[in-house]
Amino acid sequence: MITFQQWLHQTTQLLSGVTDTASLDARVLLAYCLDKPQSYLLTWPEKPMTNELLVEVNELRSRRAKGEPIAYITGFQEFWSLEFNVNPAVLIPRADTELMVEWALEIIEASKNKNLKLLELGTGSGAISIALAKAHPELQLVATDFSEAALSIAEENAELNQCSNIEFIQGSWFDCLTGRTFDLIVSNPPYLAPTDPHLLDDTLKFEPRQALVAEKNGLADSEEIIKTAKLHLRLGGRLGLEHGYEQSEAIIGIMQREGYLNSKTLRDLAGLDRLSICNRGED
Q: Are 110 and 247 part of one and the same domain?
């Protein structure tokens, strides 16, 4: 009968051609099936696996070997030290996007206005809004998404993380927000071009294409948001958009052309252009 240690070794070898995190993935899958922390595997390496456990974990291993992301297999992903339910209806929250949360928190905490109105467009799993709502439960946030399935996941995650200060609305960008204005608008819109080679990546092919791809070389949705946000930002209000690392010049150009002030790009932990910000000036 195979032991934990033996299975982990076999699985690490099997997955090494699929991912750079083969050893970690093996531990995550086995710990998930056991409903135990990974430390349990280190404490009991010689523990034999039952046939039922072996069948279950081997099925998950096969899915991972085909490139399916660990987050979709286990159904959850950590972001900003919070846990989020995920499935193929939403993008998997990534560490790069925490830059958006950091910037938004700086704006909130530096403001003298303690009743700021915040909006997230294309919330997906709700990760950004929920991270902000947890940090500042006194604020009211609005989070929108075109996808009913994505909004369902976001609402689940708000309940999971005990957030009651987010209003979720279904709609495409600003279509569902007529007459409403905000102090801060953030979004991580689709920004890959339809021909972007990254779409062939084993992980991305499992994620929702509509949340990844935009026309006009990946800039169509960002341009629409920038142009329309002026109607929904209060004077001096801030706009922040995540984008591809090669798109900052184009995004800043659109912001400046549309009359925004103080536009600049922030870099992520890898030193790559990731978030462009600006604020609304006089009309």
A: yes
Dihedral over alpha carbons 174, 180, 184, 186 (to 10 degrees): -20
117-121 and 140-145 as β-strands: parallel, antiparallel, unpaired? parallel
269: number of Cβ within 10 Å = 10
Range of the domain at 11: 4-66
Which CATH number do you get for residue 183?
3.40.50.150
Phi, then psi, of 275 in degrees rounded to 5: -140, 120
pLDDT at residue 215, rounded to an integer: 94
Domain count, the chain: 2
Residue 96 belongs to some domain of the structure: yes
- Enter the pTM of the model: 0.92
CA distances from 95 to 77, 92, 107, 224, 243 (A): 11, 10, 20, 25, 14
For residue 231, is pLDDT > 70? yes
Q: How far out from the chain centre does Cα 182 lie?
A: 22
282 pLDDT band (50/70/90 cuts)? low
Instruction: Determine the Cα–Cα distance for residues 108 and 135; give it in Å rounded to an integer.
Output: 10
d(CA 270, CA 283): 36
Do residues 153 and 263 both lie within one domain? yes
Supply 249's token pair: 């010049």
6-40 burial, b at 16+ Cβ within 10 Å, e below that, comes to ebbeebbeebeeebeebbebbbbbbbbbbeeeeee
- Tell me whether strands 182-187 and 233-242 are parallel, antiparallel or unpaired: parallel
